[in-house]
Amino acid sequence: MIVKIHFKKSNKTIEVFPGNTLLSVARDHHIFIPSPCGGNARCGGCRIRVLQGKDLEDISAEEYLKLSDEQIEKGFRLACSYVIKEDIEVDI
Ligand code: FES
């Protein structure tokens, strides 16, 4: 199965296999997402917003530590923790 990720600000859509984090997929496709802690879910610097396809069921413990309940409700996630499972649109 292939899923599509649409990067709204970049106006770029990529097709990938599910299972990798958004940060690693973005890096592979030369789309910059700040990652001060190197993708180790410690800094919160890779915060992005999922505009479509947000899944509130698989939020990691690290995301709960770095994001407020309100941010999570609005679709914010940590790109280094967010594993791609389905078509999404992100505000990058
Ligand atoms: S890169 Fe630091 S929390 Fe994701």
Please give a handful of descriptors for the protein shown.
92 residues; alpha+beta; 5 strands; 24% strand; globular; binds FE2/S2 (inorganic) cluster
Ligand inventory reads: FE2/S2 (inorganic) cluster
- How many domains make up the coordinates? 1
Q: Helix count, per DSSP?
A: 3
**Largest pleated sheet:** 5 strands, mixed
Number of strands: 5
Summary of the model, kept short:
The protein has 92 residues and is of the alpha+beta class.
What does this structure look like?
The chain has 92 residues and is an alpha+beta fold. It has a single domain (3-90), classed as Beta-grasp domain (Ubiquitin-like (UB roll)), CATH 3.10.20.30. The protein contains three helices and five strands. It has a five-stranded mixed beta sheet with strand order 2-1-5-3-4. Strand 1 (3-7) and strand 2 (12-16) form a beta hairpin. The mean pLDDT is 95. The structure holds FE2/S2 (inorganic) cluster.
Fold topology:
Elements: E1 3-7, E2 12-16, H1 22-28, E3 47-52, H2 61-66, H3 69-73, E4 76-78, E5 88-90
Parallel strand pairs: 1-5
Antiparallel strand pairs: 1-2, 3-4, 3-5
